[in-house]
Design brief:
The complex is a heterodimer of chains A (about 150) and B (about 350). Chain A has about 150 residues and is of the alpha+beta class. Chain A has helices at about 5-10, 10-20, 35-50, 85-90, 120-125, 130-150, and strands spanning about 30-35, 55, 60, 75-80, 105-110, 110-120. In chain A, strands 1, 2, 3, 4, 5 and 6 form a six-stranded antiparallel β-sheet that branches. With about 350 residues, chain B is α+β, with helices and mostly antiparallel strands. The longest helix of chain B has 19 residues, at about 320-335. The chains are: A alpha+beta (about 150), B alpha+beta (about 350).
Chain lengths: ~150, ~350
Amino acid sequence: MKICACLRKWPVIILMLLAPSALWAGDLLMVRSQLSFSDTQSKIEEEINALGYFTSTPRRVDIDLVSAGFSNGTYSVIAYGKPDKIKALAENYPELTPFLPPQIVIFGERKESLLVAMSPLYLAEFFTQPELIETFKLWNRDLQIILENVRDAR
Amino acid sequence: MGRPEVTSDRDEGSEGGRLYALHCSACHGNYGLGGVGIPLALDDFLESVTDRYIALTIRFGRPGRVMPPFPRLTGHEVLAITKYIRSLHWADEPQFSSEPVVGDPVAGRGLFAAFCAQCHGANGEGGQGTGVSFSRPRFKSILAPALNNAGFLASASDQIIKHSLIQGREGTPMRSVPALGLSEQDINDLVSYIRSFQNQLTKQVIIKRPADAVLLQQSPYSYQQTIENVKKAVADSDYSVVREQLLGEGIIDPDEGERKQYVIYFANLEMLSDGLGRDPRIGLFLPGKIVIAEYEGVVKVLTSNPKQYAALFNNMALNDFAEALYRTYRTILQAAVL
């Protein structure tokens, strides 16, 4: 069996076909903080508040995981938002409520921390009302500022 | 070629350095030492791959294997990142012939089973799991790459694959195959077999994004009764309600008038352990979250559609988990409004 030249281009063709449905970077925002887990958690709350957002109490989702065999016990989720905006969106767009308020996941990795959030722009693919698109753009800009400031903190 | 322990003619302030920090460092580490993603600042790696390989890998990623594609970066930006990655160590770009390797894939198949499949999988599907893991100690070697991945096959030329087989990868279990007693013809046969994986690409599971981001059921019951129904349906499905609250609690002042958006969080240990073990980023959607909302007199029960999770995280390891969670959500939502 010999691989003909045209088949050598097949992976590229497959990747082109995948394009509309696969993840494109930008759907997920990930940054690495050089701060410890607890310092990262404090820093991100500070950065979120600096842009006028409120944060909920960080929620640990790793309870019982260590006892289940996981070695990492440093894991939390922070929800944030501006009260009036979250309230208005929840009242006017109930289909959006499963994604409210926005969240950021933090988990420790060695002496550093990883932060992960869904890009608000991801939602624009499903919720196309102009008011929502503007909100997602604003949230995305602010989220990038928050994450980049935490990433650059020393 | 020398192997100094540290480099650097890297320039973190360059365009490539800035773009690397923005798009790559979360997974590959600030200095390319690896983490979630493979270490890039290795002589053996940078001496084995061309700039074209790196650029195509950035552009196409590895579908389903966490490494995302970057189609929105311009060609100039991709090349800037490539140049920065090349500067992470002292290795110059290797020069390879573009000639295809001619071998016998049938013979290569047997060799692959004997020498490669233990790490790269029987069908070249790569090591189990992904680099994103709570519990994988970082001192352990990287996970074996998926050789049947469209992104890999598009990026790696025959000569790159051949060179990697001959050289191996220091610091990983990947050994030089001549040291294992394989001849050049054997190596050519292996390359030919690995290249033949591209004939099977259309049969692979392709991660698809669902049409709907939300699962929704309209309830014939009152808002309060629907909340109780959801809690009972959660319990009937062998999950526990771990928290219940008004939407936005902790952010919205509880005294700010009546609101009818209630959230029920539910989980069991198996759900958390399985999901977070596959990809800790899934914590963005765990524990399970069901919203009961009344809008213009109509009560709705809503949740995010788990079928989007594997696409969102570009992680095929989440496929089964997301499918099971989808069935759970559907069962709970349907039971709550029956």
